[in-house]
Amino acid sequence: MNPDQCSTFLAIDFGIKRLGIAVGNRLFGTAQAVGSVKAEGKARFDAIAPYIKEWQPDGLVIGVPYHPDGAAHENTLLAQKFGRQMRGRFGLPVFEVDERYSTTEALSYGAKDADAASACIILEQFLYSLCSTSATPN
Q1: Per-residue pLDDT tens digits for 74-88
Q2: Contact in structure between 45 and 87 (CB atoms under 8 Å)
Q3: Beta bridge partners of 127
Q4: Which pick of 24, 29, 35, 79 has the fewest CB atoms within 10 Å?
Q5: C-alpha span between 121 and 78 (Å, rounded)
Q6: Sheet bearing 18-25, strands edge to edge
């Protein structure tokens, strides 16, 4: 599915122990942090399911971490695997966003929940990219 066919997105700032969550839509081009969950392994899916049920997104946006020079590392692969699992479990298109420095940016704004604020930054970056380029799901 092309992101142009989606109107509402749920973004996830992937972490090994915590996930930040934000929701946004194309109409306004904005995002809002909706929370974070502490979960590992398969428990992540149960923790995210209520957000998917509540917000009914058309697509998911996953923040994928990279080294500052753009090189992939272990968490890059884990986040990409998580995105594939989300697509399989929830049947929604998944779009990846390079999330380098999103947590640093969230903290610089004084975020009380840096994970959720980071997810918001990731989603805003994705929504902005829809205006300037064409994104494709993975």
Answers
A1: 999 999 999 999 999
A2: no
A3: none
A4: 29
A5: 20
A6: 30-38, 18-25, 8-13, 59-64, 94-98
